[in-house]
Amino acid sequence: MLLFGPQAALAGEREIIVTAEEPTAGRVLEALAQASETLAPSLAASRLAVNHKFVGDEHPIRPGDEVALIGMVSGG
Asked: Which helix (H) or strand (E) covers residue 6, if one does?
């Protein structure tokens, strides 16, 4: 999973590997929360993008998909 901006800084890396028993976007986020205590608080305000498109929790994650954690940003 690719990480950007503040979340990459929190994790101390730009990519993290997580595994989920059921490979859906929601399960991957749950696995990430368990794998990284530093990222867990930011996940409620984040979304996953799979192959450059935002997806919902039920979206399947397949081998070879590019998965990115996108944190919410504000500003104008």
From this structure: helix 5-11
